[in-house]
Amino acid sequence: MSAVRAGVLVTGDEVLEGSTVDRNGPWLAQRLLDLGFEVAGIAICGDRLEDIISELDYFAARGCALVVTSGGLGPTDDDRTVEAVARFCQRPLSLDSDLEQKIAERLRAAAKRWRRFDETALQRSNRKQALVPQGATTLDPVGTAPGLVVSVAETGRSSPVVVVLPGPPRELKPLFERALETPPLRALLTRTRPLSRRTLRFFGIPESQLAAAVRELADAIDGYQQLRIGSYVHRGELDLVIRYPTSAEGAAEALAEALAERFPRQLFSRDGRTLDELVAEALAGRSVATAESCTGGLVGARLTARPGSSAYFRGAIVAYDNAVKVRELGVSEATLAAHGAVSQEVAEAMAQGVARALAAELAVSVTGIAGPEGGTPEKPVGTVWIGGWDGAGACAARLWLPGDRAEVRERATTAALHLLLALARGEEPPF
Amino acid sequence: MSAVRAGVLVTGDEVLEGSTVDRNGPWLAQRLLDLGFEVAGIAICGDRLEDIISELDYFAARGCALVVTSGGLGPTDDDRTVEAVARFCQRPLSLDSDLEQKIAERLRAAAKRWRRFDETALQRSNRKQALVPQGATTLDPVGTAPGLVVSVAETGRSSPVVVVLPGPPRELKPLFERALETPPLRALLTRTRPLSRRTLRFFGIPESQLAAAVRELADAIDGYQQLRIGSYVHRGELDLVIRYPTSAEGAAEALAEALAERFPRQLFSRDGRTLDELVAEALAGRSVATAESCTGGLVGARLTARPGSSAYFRGAIVAYDNAVKVRELGVSEATLAAHGAVSQEVAEAMAQGVARALAAELAVSVTGIAGPEGGTPEKPVGTVWIGGWDGAGACAARLWLPGDRAEVRERATTAALHLLLALARGEEPPF
User: Fold this and answer.
1) Could you tell me which Gene3D superfamilies the record lists for this protein (chains A, B) (predicted)?
2) For the residues B356-384, what does the mean pLDDT come to?
3) How do beta strands A38-45 and A5-11 pair?
4) Which domains are assigned to chain B?
5) What is the DSSP string of A326-378?
6) How far B321 CA sits from the closest chain A CA (Å)?
């Protein structure tokens, strides 16, 4: 069975120029990989008609059997993806009256949110979004734009099937799944071989060292050559992603085992669960609070990003100002004066203080120097103390975090969650 | 003067598969646009050698005079961008001993952060990263990977100059600016016509309405046809970006004037300054605190994302649990029982309460239903009350925000900053 190739095309001046950060391209690429496609690439182009057609031609030239597009389906005239796909597939555009009706209903519902509303602009948008290439399969809109599955009109010409999806992720994702149920996609999926994916998550080792360990282990693992391995750093963590065909499941498992033995403390997730999921699980039936200085609320924000976090998250005290550390967290003026705000003593007092103030069993605290100003030779930018309180005692650890202000804050947040995980499980902190 | 085209190539399985969100591609595209290039597109491909070369060929085929690559310069064997560029430019790789020395020094410095460190892996990385195409201009590393400027070896063949940059943004950005100073780039820049960019920022009107207003105004503006206009929604705001050649500066100004007249309350920034910048400016010499429920700390995190925010940000109380609203913010149990946590009364009490607790002159609060659970017919998911306190009195406004949990939280955060801006300026709230 030869590889079936697919490509992703993201359109829009706003994405090209960085006003909007695209997450659809990588999301689609990952779904396509899981489904067994070989992904030729992601292309991002502006809203020029000829550029969109050119990108479609290039995917076709690379032998792609499928191209998924994102964006360019909006109501304004600069959104031209449907027109480009119609031309590429040699199918004229025509008005779908049923669809026009459905979009109208959705637009009217959305219009209620706004005080000022222009009815003429509304109707114009409506009509434009209901123009579809003849013979295309329409996927009912989740927002106002429909999805489309379009095959080339001319029979005998080898050309990719094009799935056209709107840019907003909450519309794109369900419409992509619906597209998979259409006959052209079902036909393609009979030819692909899905790969399984296994993610091992590490905290506290450099990427080069993990890579060296994987190389050393390779020879001893039967079937290692069938594994496709990538390692990715994000939010201060290191993920090892192993993709494998069913026949190499044993090899994937053997590698995971060997790495768990080599890095027992650093490998914190062997089944793909994220730190956030593990923390949420460990906190079930408990209560937690955070005391934050340099992270400014990021630890609380990350904990509450999960639905259901109100079951264990009491709240946070962001004590940016030292007076707040004293008044709200009960840190003593003497401790602050003797050790400075970025110190073991203050980190511990903050954690204990917030647990008491918010009546939480567990607490973590962060106090550090995120930069760019504020560093000293003894406490350079990136110096962060993470504190913890488990109801019985306090602990704290000092980290030197690399990166700019945003990176230091994000890594400190990740480190605080790791400490919280250890506290909730009654384990040793990982640093 | 005909347009000089440029392309951006982002390499890496981790970007293609979504493990890392690429922000380099759009950043580079925007810089290239400002410098006067026409951007053909951004391509993202995996770490396969043939795919990278194929993408370079496609940019060449589209007439690009410049391609900037991001990523694939790491120490591990799966990073193959330099090798691909060397082949594309027909220049063999050779070891740059000076560069090897520089990288070694940087690696040794970085190594100190880690407890366990493998010296052999270090040396191997070092050598790989010092291999450069013969005749390339080397840009000294900011991290451990150097940047490169490579022209095609064969004279007479029309082929793009390739600028090779490492993936980490804090390395890529300064190296890009250095690349502009090299002779091949200076030569290209004599042929481009830089465009100016003007960004108008709106809050509280739908995109379709702004688009309709721009269309209506177009005829009355002399030189309107020279403007290139895009509108972008992000974080619950709407940006109108106008790019123009120097000759059309008057037209850009006239459009900005006309829109300011039409949307006096919604147009909050006419010079590109962001909401965050305006808030920081308005808070100079003041003090502020936040009380947050559904945003979980996001407002505090956003305020403290800016260096120097300690001058005005006292702190935040994240009162996720109602008991915390009562105990730390002084919201009365009776008010909570009578109106519910998501109500005008509670929003106002939270703002006033945090101002008092943290001794701040100004305060904003957020209490709402971010979903997916917790909605009712009277208070559906997306119902958010934003409260404010200015030292003299409290106010609050109810918003119905669209989107999923993350979007509702982000839009609520933006709305809270808009209210804070109005409070700091002594103006009417914008909603």
Assistant:
1) 3.30.70.2860, CinA-like (3.90.950.20), MoaB/Mog-like domain (3.40.980.10)
2) 96
3) parallel
4) 5-189 (3.40.980.10), 196-272 (3.30.70.2860), 276-425 (3.90.950.20)
5) HHHH---HHHHHHH-SSSHHHHHHHHHHHHHHTT-SEEEEEEE--SSS---SS
6) 5
pLDDT category, A323, cuts 50, 70, 90? very high
Farthest-apart Cα atoms in chain A, separation? 83
**DSSP per residue over B141-191, as a string?**
PSSSSPEEEE--SSTT----EEEEE-SSHHHHHHHHHHHTTSHHHHHHHTT
Is the predicted pLDDT of residue A3 greater than 90, yes or no? no
Which of A20-24, A104-108, A124-128, B136-140 has the weakest average pLDDT?
A124-128
Q: What is the pLDDT of residue B156?
A: 59
Tell me, what's the pLDDT at A325? Answer: 97
Place of tokens 């209210």: B419
* Rounded average pLDDT over A311-323: 97
Distance from the A66 Cα atom to the nearest Cα atom in chain B, whole angstroms: 16
Q: Does B189 touch chain A (CB under 8 A)?
A: no
User: How far apart, in whole angstroms, are the C-alpha atoms of residue B359 and residue B372?
Assistant: 35
- Its ipTM equals 0.84
Cβ pair B358:A324 closer than 8 A: yes
Cβ neighbours of residue B242 under 8 Å, at least 6 residues apart?
Answer: B197, B198, B199, B200, B227, B228, B229, B252, B255, B256
Which residue, A234, A260, A265, is CA-closest to A429?
A265
Rounded Cα distance between A291 and A329, Å, is: 8
User: Which among B41, B51, B290 is the nearest to A51, CB-wise?
Assistant: B41
Q: Would you say residue A313 has pLDDT above 80?
A: yes
- Cβ B18–A41 below 8 Å, yes or no? no
Residues in chain A: 431
Q: What's the rounded Cα separation, in Å, for the pair B365 and B354?
A: 8
B220: contact with A, CB 8 A cutoff? no
User: DSSP letters of B324-388?
Assistant: HHHHHH---HHHHHHH-SSSHHHHHHHHHHHHHHTT-SEEEEEEE--SSS---SSS-TTEEEEEE
Contacting A residues, span 87-146, partner chain B, CB-CB under 8 Å: 110, 113-114, 116-118, 120-122, 125
Per-residue model confidence as pLDDT tens digits over A35-78:
989 899 999 999 889 999 999 999 999 999 999 999 988 777 77
- In this model, does residue B160 exceed pLDDT 90? yes
**Dist. CA A302–CA B273, nearest whole Å:** 28
* Nearest-angstrom CA–CA distance, B50 and B72: 14
**B370 vs B274: CA distance, rounded Å:** 25
Amino acid at A119: E
pLDDT band at B398 (very low <50, low <70, confident <90, very high): very high
Q: Indicate the burial class of B374 (C-beta count within 10 angstroms; 0-12, 13-18, 19 or more).
A: middle
R_g over Cα of chain B: 26
Residue A74: count of CB within 10 angstroms of its CB:
26
Q: B375 — contact with chain A (CB < 8 Å)? A: no
Establish how many alpha carbons lie within 13 A of residue B368's alpha carbon, considering only the half-sphere containing its beta carbon. Answer: 33
What pLDDT is stored for residue B369 in this prediction? 97
User: Taking a C-beta distance cutoff of 8 angstroms, is the pair B163, B37 a contact?
Assistant: no
B-facing residues of A in 409-428 (CB < 8 A) are 409
Grade residue A405 by pLDDT with cuts at 50, 70 and 90. Answer: very high
Look at B113 and A400 and tell me if their CB atoms are within 8 Å: yes
Judge whether A311 is closer than 8 Å to chain B, CB to CB: no
Alpha-carbon distance of A65 to A60, in angstroms, equals: 7
For chain A, say whether B378 makes contact (Cβ under 8 Å).
no
